[in-house]
Design goal:
The structure is a homotetramer. Chain A has about 350 residues and is an alpha/beta fold. Chain A has 13 helices and 15 strands. The mean pLDDT of chain A is about 95. Chains A and B meet through strand 7, strand 8, strand 9 and strand 10 of A and strand 7, strand 8, strand 9 and strand 10 of B. Strand 12 of chain B pairs antiparallel with strand 13 of chain D, so a sheet runs across the interface.
Chain lengths: ~350, ~350, ~350, ~350
């Protein structure tokens, strides 16, 4: 295969981001159709501007199109497992945004369908493709610092989402920290076997209405004996604070935030530098491109995708365990929720 | 009082450090005598070089000396409560290295004695006096960032102590993280009410022989709803890694390590900067002086000491709770161990 | 005008860079033709991949095309003045790479042609559009630091060009430091009236063969009384070192280099960070896009271009003065060479 | 010799600083007497507090004291050559603050006296002993970066001195940049053979009254073909800006300022770090101690001092050349003023 013909499922913010990247920056990718039940004139115009004229409200048009090799699932989480099953049944490769699903049963069904169909499934854990986090990973994985002891992930959003989003988000662990669970697994090179969660509400009272917290710390135990910790906040205010530290036998590798610029202003009042880039679109812009490049290349070359269905399932299980830990104020083994 | 005449109890490494500081750098302090049961010629020579010629093996000489206003307790932990009681009984003000004691009963007895005698008792939580951590505290305490949400303390020693030390250290929580429990209380301005500890052995097998871990992460719940986390390692290898972050309503204040120097070497192989200063003597050198200055000033001015017996007791209780949490793999309320 | 139809003159490295940007990232731009006397199959294929099928060896095809609104002059320096004159005569707006020309006479002729034709002429001083340098400029221009006293520009290439390039480059001042002369003018907001140059050969012996230096420092006097300094090296080895400092009444604003990533590795051997991005394509990638966006917007909106023919001429004059200063080892007024 | 008995000549700010260091922090040093024509009760009390009870108004008391091995010359510049001659005649080793003198004739006479007497003479170029600048030097001197191409010294005071000081200071080159000329020589490991100076008045009008500038840039040519540049400001406002960069065959070594603390405050308004330490007493505190330790050790061990009379003379000659260059707006060879 020299070109991967792609259909986009869901054409909201993240769908359009992927569509733009596929069109401009991903060698071998050709976006040929988009489907979204809420498709409007604006969406059609956007698709047209990318040279895509097949725009549908019914996603079946994508699954049924014989000239489409792969789909990008950028629709609401509730649709993910069903779309995965239908894409697999149609023999199409699948790129799916996180989380892969909200219940273990539907996730297992989807993974079974993928396995049976022999198609590729890549999960959108975009942070693995960030230049900073990837560098940390590569140093750890090289083994030159020896074995990992402690993995720390700091992940703080600049501002809370609107209440309507919180209501359907699935909670901080499934919606937000799921990225960090994957990051911790990625950095450790070992499975998380137990978690213990602390949470609090400090940002906005509406989180509590949905049995959610807006600030959380979760400790991790890894299979290989390493331990870790993740802290999340829904509103850091100064920008998107995304940092990883891995402490090993021979030392530490950590990363800092990308900054808006590298300026420094020195006056009698102090020295001022720029803030981190604002949010995920700014910070992970190139990472979104990189994950799509890898997905398309894996299809063309017939190689493995870099983040697969197992990764997608594990992150969900860990999020479930973290929520249970917070609710019951006790450490919870991941195996407890994998039933 | 214009001058505080001081007797030193214990004249090992930390005793000599304080003795040097009191002689050279603390206005109003006059070190007049030292006592150590292992006093040898070398110790006497060191004392003499500081202008101190009253050197004893029997600490009673210090307690009985009517011209001594205050004592520095720099002897092994096991002696702390008894020495506090005896100093208090003799009407002498007390500076005591951490921890204040190893059992709750003896701590309570010591604090009672101090209270009854009306003397001052300052605990040696030296890190509160570090320019970096103090700046973080002052920013948080100023309220300009609003309420604290999350307190993070990273505290990593450069290399593990010898096995003989580990055998009698009291374990990582009582020996090492006790400083960080105090730091967390200091930064949060709120009591710690519950802890949850994870630990592992990655540095040296001998820790396990003493039912100890060499790597630990402890989550904290504060009375005011904030949460926190501390991570400790007995061997970071690259130097003494001592960092604090406090995340608040309006942003974050954090500190970095003091570095050996501010050089930067750029070549085709990369950009190299200096490491953190090696260990506590290098990093907290000025802080040791500052805490003694404050202690002596509090005596002269009749004001409160900056770190008191309550602070000493709380840190011990939290360390006990952390050990219990690690042993039982469950969150432990500090009130559980305060019986 | 809603769309600017562009013809590219010169289709080497820089031409293809602009062509890619115009096609993918510049709203309102439409690249419709390219011309290069050395046009080969590879160049045609590249143009085709951007959707451009009008590929010529004869630049006259561009000047004569009635549907072309503007040209990008990306051909060798020797052609710049002639191409400017011909584009102006054809009523086309002009984006011209630096330098505008190599002799004062031809520059004056070209500027006269532009003025007479009433077309826009923008010079490719791309660094003005870099996020870091622009931030420095904006802080200075805001006046919040008061008046500028000293402007310092550090500009060091990672590696020397091939000898063949050096032979025809015009020398370090005209080829390389010309960017920094423009940067100094941009930051100071004042004309340079005198320069004094020191140079040396430390990098590669072949520079001396062409009466050129590979390392140079030039001091600047500005009309407003500020002074400045630029240092250039043809081979910094660790990457592209591009930094600006402006010292003002109330303090300093400076910038640092963009780094390959924000990682930090700490071991007993030291702390290692990443190097600056490699060269101008990496560092000024977004700046190349930004300058084209501004050029196209100026045409569509009928506003002034941000860097004009006067800026192009001044940078050349300053480079001439610097060369004369180096040759004669004396300060040279810019007015001396503007005859 | 096991102990060096020292007499202090001049007991103002810098004299008291050295006196305190000699008493507290310099092994083998014993300050035994001070002399200052303006000696008052306060000065005597200060000396007494250091255990020094021999306090004189007449410096002859120092030169005549047979038990004094060495002198520290901390008196006004005008007295330096005479005091050097008298100390040398008395067979005393000499530590002399910069500059060694103001005229070439008196400097030569003083150096001749030192040579004849066979005593040691160390100049107070304290910055060579700063941990940051010394690290830069050591990296360059190690040769691991290859040959030096460019030496850059940025040296900016936080605030201008009072007008009365400016009136007698000898001007910016002799009073302030003299330190940087020495730093440039120290870093380059090669003599400066020519300078070119630009200066301006931007800070305070009173400098112009004394034929002085408050802002200056000086380019340097070294004997070994390297070139360099120094920039000075009398008022950086944000603190003492003291940075050095040396660019070599294989890369660059540079240093940053010591900061008041390592804190970082991140809010929606920006990220704020601390300023450089305020001025030379804060920045070079440990360097003052280090230079005295080296001086005393050289006497005790009979080894060479690290900064000698030649260094003192060269810095003065370069300052003279820089002033001549500024006055005549032309490059001046150092040999021109060494007559």
């Amino acid at each position: 295969m020299k070109e991967v013909r792609i259909g986009m499922l869901g054409f909201g913010r993240i769908g359009r981001l992927h569509a733009t990247n596929l069109t401009r920056s991903v060698p071998g990718a050709k976006l040929v159709a988009v489907a979204d039940p809420y498709l409007n004139d604006d969406a059609v115009a956007f698709a047209n501007s990318l040279g895509v004229d097949r725009c549908f409200k019914d996603e079946a048009e994508i699954f049924n199109a014989s000239d489409i090799d792969a789909v990008f699932i950028c629709s609401p989480t509730g649709t993910h497992p069903d779309f995965i099953c239908r894409a697999a049944a149609a023999g199409k490769h699948i790129f799916c945004e996180k989380p892969i699903g909200l219940t273990l049963e539907e996730i297992n069904t989807a993974l079974e369908a993928v396995k049976k169909a022999g198609v590729k499934l890549q999960l959108g854990f975009v942070r693995r493709f960030d230049h900073n986090h990837k560098k940390v990973h590569d140093v750890v994985a090289s083994g030159k610092l020896g074995e990992a002891h402690v993995i720390k992930v700091c992940s703080r959003d600049p501002e809370e989402p609107p209440e309507a989003y919180v209501a359907v988000s699935g909670g901080i662990f499934m919606d937000m920290m799921i990225h960090d669970f994957d990051m911790a697994r990625y950095q450790a090179g070992s499975e998380i076997v137990e978690v213990m969660a602390y949470g609090t509400n400090k940002i906005n009272p509406f989180f509590a209405k949905y049995d959610d917290v807006d600030t959380a710390i979760v400790m991790l135990k890894f299979e290989n004996g390493a331990i870790g910790v993740i802290d999340n906040s829904r509103a850091a205010r100064y920008g998107y604070d995304q940092r990883v530290e891995v402490h090993c036998d021979k030392g530490c590798v950590q990363d800092g935030n990308d900054l808006i610029d590298m300026s420094m202003i020195s006056t009698a009042d102090g020295v001022t530098c720029e803030k981190p880039t604002w949010f995920f679109l700014e910070r992970y812009n190139n990472a979104f491109i990189a994950e799509s490049i890898d997905f398309v290349r894996a299809i063309i070359d017939g190689t493995d995708v870099p983040v697969d269905g197992h990764d997608g399932k594990m992150a969900v299980l860990i999020a479930m365990a973290a929520k249970k830990s917070l609710d019951e104020n006790r450490p919870v083994k991941v195996s407890e929720v994998d039933v």
